[in-house]
Amino acid sequence: MIPPQEATEIIFNHLFTFPAETIELSQAHGRVLQEDVQADRDFPPFDRVTMDGIAYDFDDLKGDQPELVIEDMQLAGEPKKTLTQAGHCLEAMTGAVLPEGTNTVTPYEDIDVQERDGKKVAVIQKMPAQKGLNVHDQGFDRQKSEVLITKGTLLSPSQIAVAASVGKAQIKVTQAPKATIVSTGDELVKVDEEPKPYQIRQSNNYAIRAALANFRVSADFFHLPDSLEKTTAGLADIMEKYPIVILSGGVSRGKRDYVPDALEALGVQKLFHRVKQRPAKPFWFGVKEKQNAVFALPGNPVSTFLCFHRYLQPWLEKSLGLADRPTQWATLNDHVKFAPELTYFLQVLAHSDKSGQFSATPIEGHGSGDFANLLRCNGFIELPADRSHFRQGEVFPFIPFVR
Amino acid sequence: MIPPQEATEIIFNHLFTFPAETIELSQAHGRVLQEDVQADRDFPPFDRVTMDGIAYDFDDLKGDQPELVIEDMQLAGEPKKTLTQAGHCLEAMTGAVLPEGTNTVTPYEDIDVQERDGKKVAVIQKMPAQKGLNVHDQGFDRQKSEVLITKGTLLSPSQIAVAASVGKAQIKVTQAPKATIVSTGDELVKVDEEPKPYQIRQSNNYAIRAALANFRVSADFFHLPDSLEKTTAGLADIMEKYPIVILSGGVSRGKRDYVPDALEALGVQKLFHRVKQRPAKPFWFGVKEKQNAVFALPGNPVSTFLCFHRYLQPWLEKSLGLADRPTQWATLNDHVKFAPELTYFLQVLAHSDKSGQFSATPIEGHGSGDFANLLRCNGFIELPADRSHFRQGEVFPFIPFVR
């Protein structure tokens, strides 16, 4: 048995690399960027008017309520116009190019437009405090060629928008690997079957598939019966097709727990079996060359769920090329006692409260079989093995499972 | 102009209701539940063995190292067996039904199995502290018919798993409404077009479509030119097809800002125009009967993004039937000065740090046009209009935009 930190290190020493692929930007949400996205032009690409009003040369303003003859209008989407003479101005709209010969914009609410000798004149009611107001200078935000989004970024809505703005109609992302979730256990029936009194329905596979979908990884389901021969034969087929093999159940010390033996018979290198933790002590991890990563998770639903979020998800994120995310820390909201010398992953409902604390309320439930308890929680906190008493107000790492 | 709180109330007074539909559970992740999901059986459905070992009657134990003759084995997935005589036991595997006539399980690691007169005998090395150990009693977690997941819950992986366990192969969720994102502004070109020096590419539509996808709402794109006739005609068509109409741009006071006039010409009831906030002051909201909700957002990218997350998303969540979520609060990590009498939505990078504080670092950027700045942030904090100085350590509502 090894502690969770050692299990984590072993898992991180066996990351996979998945190839890149170029996809439509419209499909890229939730994918991991595999190139640097650069500014194709300055940001903004031209001196940009930011208020609807008049554009003029600041040095033309004389007196208290200067008047400027309106000679033209500069609309958004029009080529740049030029101010033809001193003492004049152009109307200019938000998003328009700042006309040549002007440097300042005053919004309509600060001017009064009057008619003089058949000409429209803008009378400035509120003097601009300085030259350059309401103009967003070319290149002020970002320079051409500057890297805007770095390789390894998860593409969320703001990244998608910036990629669109620089013309990335296609974008390079990590290919989503194929995964499978293999349930074991003769007591399991399918979701649409009526279980006999001594049977239960499969559910871990649904939980993991949904969690994988957050990373745009799809997963197929298989079920293997409690037989060494059939488990070995079934896994042999499965391992041909799926680089990521997630097993649920069959890794304890029961008489019918054939998963470790079957995996070793298939040449999967066992990297660890059993972790000093509750839940999910029987967790098994191994790899077959660079071909398969095998996460054999204990079958109890809370154990499966914990292992996915604490071990498998970080492995997946790193293997997809995602940059590291900072650990989240939560303040324990109650006293907790846990005597065994195991790392205790406590189910909590955490929330950033009105005091600005990210506080975690323990919701213990009835052990690793009580997965209805997960519904009331949004994560685990990780309590170290070398202590038994954990006090209200102490801070521990938080592992979220609701997004 | 109205303050954000009033805008919120108006929006919440104009929620929509979308019909329910029954879909495959495998498609339900991220959808909003439209029925109560009940336990179809007790949880667990039988007295369940939770460790691999031997099952026996606690009252049979005599002396220091009692011996029990192993008479049979109870596997997971087998019908319940019965202990035939006192002083005997059955081997029993995790997930199996507890055999009739037994009440306690001792794991293999606490027993020694020996051969006596051709019979297998379990010698208990470590006495159980009490009757009933390692048995998960029928109905202990949840009783049959108990509501496990309530209507209005967002279906995340743990809910999907619990729904699977009670046989909900099909499940009732809110139908995803059709949405459209209509960009306006003659300066805009498509993502795959090469913009002229005075043009920019569309990007707000990409941001909003990706954000809507988090709620499984798909959205079509349209673009309307800066013309009252064309805007009105285009919107008339669009409003026939889409209950949720999101416009980007054309709501300021510019000479070519035709959106409010076009909407009013089409019989959309204006509920407000302009909110006392920065960014996104020109935000316009209206409804046409129960047929269309129209969110006309200012076209600056940061403004669009703010309005989506601060106003449109809560409206959508409530209209989909989602139960209220608690406000998140963040501790401001620096001093901030903002003089205008407007609610200031400050861009921040927030994180629950090692002190257990959910702390928000301001990343101000260059105003509402500087959307590359959003890439460095994960939310806004909402600073009230009636103050100008906001001190480090003060706590404000947090509006996340990265999931």
Please provide a written account of the structure.
The structure is a homodimer of 403-residue chains. By secondary structure, chain A is α/β, with parallel strands linked by helices. The first copy, chain A, has 4 domains: 4-18 and 176-319, Molybdenum Cofactor Biosythetic Enzyme, Chain A; 21-42 and 148-174, Molybdopterin biosynthesis moea protein, domain 2 (Alpha-Beta Complex), CATH 3.90.105; 48-136, Molybdopterin biosynthesis moeA protein, domain 3; 328-400, Beta-clip (Beta Barrel), CATH 2.40.340.10. Helices cover 17% and strands 31% of the residues of chain A. Chain A has 6 helices and 28 strands. Chain A has helices spanning 4-12, 157-165, 204-213, 228-241, 259-265, 301-319, and strands spanning 20-24, 37-38, 48-49, 53-56, 67-74, 88-92, 104-107, 111-116, 119-124, 135-136, 147-149, 170-174, 179-184, 188-189, 200-201, 219-224, 244-248, 269-273, 277-278, 284-288, 292-297, 328-332, 336-337, 343-352, 358-362, 379-383, 389-390, 395-400. In chain A, the strands form 8 sheets. A 6-stranded mixed β-sheet of chain A has the order 7-4-6-5-9-8, with no helix packed on it. In chain A, helix 1 runs parallel beside helix 6 (301-319). The longest helix of chain A has 19 residues, at 301-319. The radius of gyration of chain A is 31 Å and the shape is elongated. The first copy, chain A, starts with a helix and ends with a strand. The mean pLDDT of chain A is 96.
